[in-house]
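Can't paste images in this forum, so I'm doing it all in text. The chain is below; anyone willing to post the predicted C-alpha cells underneath?
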Amino acid sequence: MAALPPDLDTVIERAWQLTQRTPGFLGESESRFLGMLAACVPARGTIVEIGSFKGKSTVMLASVAAHYGLGPVVAIDPHTSPSTTDPGISAGSSTFEEFLASVKVAGLAEHVEIHRAYSRDVAKGWNRPIRLLWIDGDHTFRGAKEDFDLFTPHLAKDGVVALHDALNAFEGPIRVFVEEILRSDRFGAAGVVQSTAWGQLRPEDGKDFRELRMRIESRARRMLPFVANGRRLQGITKMAYKLARSRVPRAAISASEWSKLVSRSGAK
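Text version of the structure:
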C-alpha cells in the first residue's frame, strides 16, 4: 500500500471548510472523498473537472492540488443555461461570475485553469495525461458517455474517473458507471461514495478485480430501467427506484481503506 500524506486529514478538513461555504450540490462525504482522490490517486497527470457550476467541487480539488503542488485543476464548463442539472438557473443567465467569485474568495484563482467551453470543444486539442477525471456535466446518457469517451483515452494508468449523481435520478452517470466501468476489465477497483461513482484504470490486471466490480454491478444495474430515456419518477415507480438505490453500497471510505483497495493485485 502506497504511503499516504501524513497531513492528509488536516488538508482535507481545511479544504472542506472552504468548500462548504461555496454554493453547489456536492455533499460532505463525497466532497471529502473527491479531495482524497485528488491527493491520493497513484498516477501522474492533470486533474480535470467537467462541469463546474458555481465552483464547489473546484474549490475542493484546487485546495488539495495547491497544497500538494499537483498543478492547476482544469475546470471545463460553458456556464450556460438552461440545464436540467443546474436547477434554479433561468434561461439566458450564467453561473460564470459566481464561479469566478467562488474561486477568488477561496484564494485559489491561480490554481484553476478555466475553460469556459463545452467539453467536446476542449477535447479537440487535448493532449495531456489525466490522473483524476471528475465528470459532473451533462447528466443525460449521451452527454455523460461523450465526456467519458472523449477524455478517458487520456486517463493515465492507475488514474481514476469519478462521476457525480450516479445514485440520483439521471440516466447518464449510472449507465456509464455500469456499462463502461463495472463491466469492463480495463478498470480495477470501483465503488460509490454517497452519489459519486468511481473506477480506477487498470488495463493490465483489471480482470483480477472482476468479482469486486460484478458485486456492485449486480445491484447498480437494477437502477437502469427506472432512469432510461430520462424517465420521470413518481408514485410507486419512485419508491421502487429508491429501494433499488438503497441496495447499492455507498458508504464513505477512509483514505487508508481506499489506498489498500486500489493497491491490491486483485480482488482476492
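The chain is about 40% helix and 15% strand. The two ends are 15 Å apart (CA to CA).
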